[in-house]
Amino acid sequence: MESLEKLEAQGGQMRLSANAGSLRILFSQEVWEDLISNAPAFEEPTPEELEELGSLREQLERYAGEESFSSVLRGVRCGDSGLEYDLVLRPSGLFAMTTGYYFAPVVGPELVARMGAEKDESVEQAYVIGAVASEAALEAGDDNLRVLSVRGHSCSTSRFEMPPELWQVLSGRLGWRNVETITRGER
Fold it and tell me: Rg (Cα) of the chain, in Å, rounded?
């Protein structure tokens, strides 16, 4: 199935129309309820998503070392939040921005709010990166705090606005072709 066009309940059955109407599936109500009740929860990352999250962190750090960044720091405190950035990277160059990266299996709006409440003078922009990020989390960031989700390859900013090192790792080393840009109220 490539795209879902319509889902409707009618006469004790669920009717699904997909792929521009070329695929139609009819489920009994009992089968549909069984499918929904046994579906994995959205918030649970798969082992593959967790592996890609770990690879992203490792590849960002490796990229920074190979490109001779002026600083590569680990475990930098994020204000008084009690949280620490996993990586803080500062490329070499005149207009380079210091970016803090915080990695978590699941990113919700509470975590984004906690990170955003703490402005850190040493980090000019921050990314909260999750194997899974909820829709509310993707919409919760601001100009200085962005959210990236491995699931769905979605981000609260476009690939053109990302730090170059992040897009280089995503596109080159991890093979992402693009990111779905999610802003407030788009989903």
Answer: 20
Q: For residue 110, what are its two tokens?
A: 């509470």
- The label of the residue with tokens 């990266």 reads 101
pTM, 2 dp: 0.75
Q: What is the pLDDT of residues 128-143, one digit of tens each?
A: 999 999 989 999 888 8
How does DSSP classify residue 173?
I
Distance CA 102, CA 26 (A): 44
Distance CA 79, CA 66 (A): 29
State the CB neighbour count (10 A cutoff) for residue 120.
19
Provide the pairing of β-strand 99-107 with 125-133: parallel
Which distant-in-sequence residues (6+ apart) come within 8 Å of 186 by Cβ?
Answer: 139
DSSP type of residue 143: S
